[in-house]
Amino acid sequence: MTATVAPDVGRGEAVLARTAAADRRRVRSERAVLWAGTAAFGTAILLFWQFGLGHLVNPRYVSDPATIAGRVGELAAEGEIVRHVGVTLGEAAVGFAIGSVLGLASAFALAQTRRGYAVFEPFLVGFYSIPKIALAPLFILWFGLGTTPKIVMAALLVYFVVFVNTATGIREVRPGLLQVCRVFGASRRDLLVKVTLPSAAPAIVASIRITVTRAIEGALLSEFVASTQGLGYLVARASREFDIATVFAGIVIIAAVVMAANGLLRFVEGRLSPWHGGRVHG
């Protein structure tokens, strides 16, 4: 009987190994096709921009990829990229930390009582509907041209997304589950740590990921309005001087920074919560 079972186990393991290997080949093939398609599409856009767009739009207003790449290289050699990227990321990081902490704290405080959240929600919706570009000049008038208005704007954009998603995740915990836990003697702290927080964790993680790029956007928005350093200042200064190549170079650098930050956070989120799809509000 033992001799009969052993070959069956060996054949099962071999089948599983072949299936796993086939699945890995399929994933690699799909990944290669996606990379090839992305590279081909990006190359087509660059070629059209380099050789075709000038026939549709005045070349003075769009520059071209070769000139922009050269300008990016000049900015890198001059140390401008490192300096301006460092300033913008520093402002965004501080604003992100402040907005995340305040968003989480206020969401957990208000979502514990439905009446408190219901009272606060209309004011939240009304304030969130205000165009943020309208607030940037006020922040600069109140806090000056330093880093403070950029941090405040970044924190504001982060706060609303983190608050809404955290509060939604907390409020979606089924009341029946909480009642059962109370019946079995769970304390208020047990309910928060062992039930509410794990249930809201997917929404919190996803909102924190997406708000990193929001924090960068908030810092850039204030830098566009008035600043003396940062990527937003670089683009705004170049536009005032009608330096189109530098404007596009700044846009390319901004896009690269945001994409790199988002890619890094997706990787971290995939490692920490691979079961979560990342659906967020805001």
TrEMBL record:
Its main location: membrane. Keywords: Cell membrane, Membrane, Transmembrane, Transmembrane helix, Transport. The chain crosses the membrane at residues 32-51, 92-111, 123-145, 151-170, 191-212, 244-265. Residues 85-265 form the ABC transmembrane type-1 domain. Gene3D superfamilies: MetI-like. It is a multi-pass membrane protein. It is found in: Cell membrane. Pfam families: BPD_transp_1. Belongs to the binding-protein-dependent transport system permease family. PANTHER family: ABC TRANSPORTER PERMEASE PROTEIN HI_0355-RELATED, ALKANE SULFONATE ABC TRANSPORTER-RELATED, MEMBRANE SUBUNIT. This is ABC transporter permease. The lineage of its organism: Bacteria, Bacillati, Actinomycetota, Actinomycetes, Pseudonocardiales.
